[in-house]
Amino acid sequence: MNEEIRALEPKPLWNKFADLNAVPRPSKKEERVIEFIKNFGNDLGLETEVDEVGNVIIRKPATPGMENKKAVVLQSHLDMVHQKNSDSNFDFENQGIEMYVDGDWVRANGTTLGADNGLGVATMMAILESKEIEHPALEALFTIDEETGMTGAMGLKPGLLKGDILLNLDTEEDNEIGIGCAGGVDITASGTYTEEPVPEDSIAYRVQVKGLQGGHSGMDIIKGLGNANKLMNRILFGGYENFGMRISEINGGGLRNAIPRESEAVVVVEKIQKEDFTAEIGKAIQQIKQEYKTLEPKLLIEVSETEAPQKVMELGAQELFLKSIYAAHNGVYRMSPDIEGLVETSNNVARVTVKNGKIEVLCLTRSSVDSSKTDLANSLRAGFELAGFEVELSGAYPGWAPNMDSPILKVLDELYRKMNTDEPDIAACHAGLECGILGKNYPEMDMISFGPTIRGAHSPDERASISSAQKYWSFVLEVLKNIPEKK
Known about the structure:
The protein is about 30% helix and about 30% strand. It has about 475 residues and is of the alpha+beta class. The chain has two domains: about 5-180 and about 400-480, Zn peptidases (Aminopeptidase, 3-Layer(aba) Sandwich), CATH 3.40.630.10; about 185-395, Alpha-Beta Plaits (2-Layer Sandwich), CATH 3.30.70.360. Strands 9, 11, 13, 15, 16, 18, 19, 20 and 21 form a nine-stranded antiparallel beta sheet that branches. It is elongated, with a radius of gyration of 24 Å. The termini are far apart.
């Protein structure tokens, strides 16, 4: 299947992407891909090192005639988001990604593709391997764990890199030149509840929300897509208020940085309420589907009878839980007053689980303004704490402040205009790039971000544009040729 990927142009890029995608590389479990990249550098005879947190740095001298140019750091992250369709048996930890061509797109078979940030990694590999590409002295920085904590960037020590300019290859629109990004913080609300026997004369139902698009909880949050956890809570709240419905368990969403596509719950109601309950919940489902018919045409909400569980949540805890999820902000919180069309602050209610007397709610709050990030995080914390949860804020990372006077920005702006008929979109993004973190230890380094067009990142609908990859590859090569000289 991947042989048709290897035949695509530019072959150096797509071949390295196919090599990379044969290596399992989930966040927090990057041992195999770290070894893969380390061996790649050593086999090329290049200076290669792995730092104490697992980042890999490969250094390559300047090509003849480029020795007087400023040194460049090429940077991408090795890990990828693991999401798959519910009917997929794919094993991310032991299988390579199965790719195929669909028109102008490269897709994966029922899973995330790993183009985020695999195409950046493949770009760096292809440049390191090439004996023909002109470039200044290079440091290729392959970071780990970008998707679930950015611990690679956080753990990179000052003084390790010597480059003057950093090219981050993790932007997902080929006409965009990234000059800033949002910071973030993880919010975890945990609670316990007393389990009670299922009331007598009850009937059990399995409620499923599925078919949502999902997507990147930063870049796609502005689209107003359906959140499976919030939709499920809406249904359960109505069932509880109108019919005394009881919750046995809930399993919704997945990773913090992915908009949740699916949620499943097991609930019970009194048998005497059966007809009214199913009729009312049917109306609620139709209302939701009508609201989302344009944004989420494949949304499915199914309610079916199931085997009765043994336990349910006690009523007091259930009421507080349902109200806390209803109150938790999800989506855009504030738009930037300074940059048109940019989300400043948002939250993703990413995962909700209820089972065996334990409740856990995972959120990811993002903002390009630290004070606004703190404001929303405190709002969420207050709501959960009022409902009796313990709340932990962790994994905070800074944003990347735009620098409109950046010398490398001027280079990319002029090159893009020269090579294309349109103008570049010079913008900050509502995603967490590693530039903000790296900039703390390397404040003098001039940073910029760009990349090929990728759609549906962090979901099984992830796809990479073939024509855009060709445009991007040509741009990368021209950027390397036009790096400014040392002063």
